[in-house]
Inverse folding.
């Protein structure tokens, strides 16, 4: 796919520990190395401006600034 940036994502558990599996995703948001991102896969991956009508199966749709589990902040950018 011409003009599209792909990133190799390493999936993480809720404590940001690597799970040992990877996903190749189209970068629709300008993510960079070592950022925590959210991605969508399947038919949902083709619903962004960057991936519309393209054969994408995974797309990065957000860069995470922070997240919490209960009252505990697990990650802050």
């Amino acid at each position: 796919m011409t003009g599209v940036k792909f990133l190799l994502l390493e999936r993480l558990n809720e404590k940001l520990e690597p799970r040992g599996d990877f996903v190749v995703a189209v970068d629709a948001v300008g993510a960079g190395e070592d950022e925590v991102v959210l991605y969508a896969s399947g038919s949902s991956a083709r619903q962004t401006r960057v991936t519309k009508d393209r054969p994408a199966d995974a797309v990065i749709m957000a860069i995470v600034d922070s997240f919490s589990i209960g009252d505990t902040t697990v990650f802050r950018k």
About this structure: The chain has a mean pLDDT of 93.
